[in-house]
Amino acid sequence: MESVGIVLQRGENNSISALLKADIEITSGQLFLIEDGSKKTVVRLDEYSYINEFFDEKAPFSKTLLNDKIDVELLHMNTVIKAEMSIVKRYNHSSVPKPGSIVKLLPEIKDEKDLLSFYQIPSLQGYIEYGRLAGSKIPLLLDLNAITMHIGIFGETGSGKSYNMRYLITLLSNIKLGDKLTAIPMIIIDANGDYSDFTSFNIDLISGGRGWIKKYVMRDTLSDAEVRLSIDLSLFTAKDLADFIISLKYGDSAPNSLQSNLLEQVLLQHDPQEYNWLLGSREGIEALKTELEELKTSGFSPSTIRAVNSSLEVFYGKVKKYNLVSSSSSINEQTLDVIWNTKGLGIIDFSSDGSPGVDISTKQLIVSYIARLILDYLTKSKYSGKQKLLALVIEEAQNYIPSSDYPVNARITKDVLVTLATQGRKFGVSLFLVSQRPAFVDKYVLSMLNTFFFHRIYHEDVKYVMSATGGLPEHLSKSLPSLDTGYVIVSGLMSALRSPALVKIPWDDRIGSYAGYVSDIESILVG
Ligand SMILES: Nc1ncnc2c1ncn2[C@@H]1O[C@H](COP(=O)(O)OP(=O)(O)OP(=O)(O)O)[C@@H](O)[C@H]1O
Fold first, then answer.
1. What does pLDDT average to in each consecutive run of 10 residues of the chain (527 residues)?
2. Does 41 fall in a domain?
3. H or E element that contains 163
4. Helix axes 238-247, 411-427, angle to 10 degrees
5. Residue nearest to atom 3 of ligand 1 (CA)
6. Rounded to 5, what percent of the chain is helix, strand, coil?
7. Which of 277, 298, 321 is the last residue of a domain?
8. How far, in Å, CA of 17 to CA of 376, rounded?
9. How far does residue 501's CA lie from ligand 1's centre (Å)?
10. How far does the centroid of ligand 1 lie from the alpha carbon of residue 129, in Å?
11. What are the residue boundaries of the Helicase HerA central domain, all occurrences included (predicted)?
């Protein structure tokens, strides 16, 4: 490969300063190869600036130049890039390249053998090829063995998160195993209908390794690919349900604990199997009200009882509208068995098309239910001696695991998702948290994630995310607010590089054909 620069000096902590030719295209996060004699080292460009030996602000000659018409060509002479780089990988040596070592672009990879030797791994088994390392044709290998260490995908609106998630899903749906295709069993909480086409006209993008693909909706179904969503309340504790139901009337502030305790006491008198009938049918609600009325004699004030009654009505109004509650819920343990056995994909469509008019608290109840279901299912499997694996993708994660700064009450989801994040990896849960405002996602949960895809993120979010994740070296994190769409910095355990690197996500029209993207506005307008 062509030489593009020379090492100037080596610094502390594996850092290297180099001069690079000014006429090559470079970006922070890009990787280069350094040759020090026969010793090869891969380095990452962390920071750079263009300098010109000819230009000195203070020199009288420069001053005249600045005042007169500038001769650009003259100024451009002797321009070089001063680059700060850090070592990512060494090939069978442990030294730091000496001053004078040659900097090159990454090598060409002609075949699988080249790829294996670039990454220094014995086989591609268990890896998927993701995007291309910026400035090269080398795919980044992602290690599927680290998938249960959880993943964060962060980027501001329009930075390419949804496209990236779709791309990842297509990769995770077509995993080569010998001459067979398999897939990671997965449930997606689809906030905006970005994956709807995976159950219809783009099904072949993801059906390679999957035997079952369904979309759950909260309206009448329109095709065989759709299932009407219902959940089983017996999976919740009396306390969780009581807090949730009472807080429906109080919005974001803490639920009234007296009312919550009262409702919990009444629910505790019943078997959890009865919760669906009690809270999901008119007769059940009336039965609960009668039981509450009887408690007047035990010292509960009529106003507390009245308040609980009215919270119950609010709750019942919600579940009745969507027929949401049933002991034979449409997503249950058997569904997870099917998803596991067929390496299936279940899409929970929370878009305005799939779940028209559904509010955030109802969505939280559903996400909480699914998280409990997954945890129960995988824990049982593990204890019966069979390790399974299921990925749960949660878009708009800040609505389910908010930080203390984010004004959303998420009691019903937060605890169970924290448990999934901390315990889940033992049982085979792989969490994918997607958010445009990672600063509003709970810090503790962020610290549980081990692989990150950083798209362009808001300046205000950078500090929070970096302190919560320990994700990137400082120089590189500074480049995040100006990252181009289609580029992502990948860091963490799944990356075969084990060090952050900039990756270009290839564009594919079909992966790009989803809700957030209009491919040809003129033809749509003209018809
Ligand atoms: N890899 C890519 N290469 C080229 N263009 C891309 C790429 N990824 C995304 N884009 C462009 O950027 C647009 C926005 O991408 P995307 O919808 O994925 O952003 P987002 O971060 O999910 O935004 P939001 O948070 O609003 O959903 C796409 O419609 C597409 O035009």
1. 89 88 92 96 94 67 59 67 94 93 95 96 95 96 92 95 96 92 97 94 94 97 96 97 90 76 95 97 97 83 91 95 94 97 98 95 97 96 94 96 88 93 90 94 91 94 82 84 95 93 95 66 66
2. yes
3. helix 161-173
4. 140
5. 486
6. 40, 25, 40
7. 321
8. 52
9. 20
10. 20
11. 128-374
Q: Tell me which residues have their CB closer than 6 angstroms to ligand 1.
A: 155, 157-163, 436, 485-486, 505, 507, 512, 516-517
Residue 10: phi and psi, rounded to 5, are -105, 145
In a domain, 207, yes or no: yes
DSSP characters over 391-416: EEEESSGGGTSB-TTS----HHHHHH
User: Do both 189 and 255 map to the same domain?
Assistant: no
Hey, what are 257's tokens? 């604990």
Identity (one letter) of the amino acid at 119?
Answer: Y
| 323: alpha, beta or left? (left if phi > 0; alpha if psi -120 to 50) | left
Q: How far does residue 486's CA lie from ligand 1's centre (Å)?
A: 7
Residues 440 and 499 in one domain: yes
Range of the domain at 287: 233-321
Cα 434-360-371 angle, rounded to 5 deg: 60
Beta-bridged to residue 41, according to DSSP, are 34, 90
Helical ranges in 248-301 per DSSP H: 257-268, 275-280, 282-294
Rounded distance from Cα 4 to ligand 1 centre (Å) = 32
Of 140, 162, 395, the one to substitute when testing ligand 1's pocket (max ligand atoms within 8 A of C-beta) is: 162
Q: 0.90 exceeded by the pTM?
A: yes
Yes or no: say if 453 and 473 are a contact pair by the CB < 8 Å rule.
Answer: no
Please tell me the residue having the least CA distance from ligand 1 atom 28. 517
Last-in-domain residue among 321, 341, 364: 321
The two structure tokens encoding residue 50? 């263009």
The reply to whether 444 and 476 lie within a common domain is yes
Reference 181, options 130, 128, 139; nearest CA is: 128
Phi/psi region, residue 467 (left: phi>0; alpha: psi -120 to 50; beta: rest), is alpha
Same domain, 352 and 260: no
Q: How many domains does the chain have?
A: 3
Q: What's the confidence (pLDDT) of residue 527?
A: 60
Tell whether 390 and 482 lie within a shared domain: yes
Residues 348 and 426 in one domain: yes
User: What single-letter DSSP state applies at residue 352?
Assistant: T
Task: Please report whether residue 119 resides in a domain.
Answer: no
CATH of the domain at 479: 3.40.50.300
pLDDT at 473: 84
Q: Cα angle at 135 between 490 and 146, to 5 degrees?
A: 25
Distances (CA, A) of 480 to 28, 141, 297, 391, 428: 9, 22, 63, 27, 31
194 closest CA partner among 221, 164, 222, 219: 164
Alpha carbons 42 and 342: distance in angstroms, whole number: 40
Is residue 118 in a domain?
A: no
The reply to whether 219 and 351 lie within a common domain is: yes
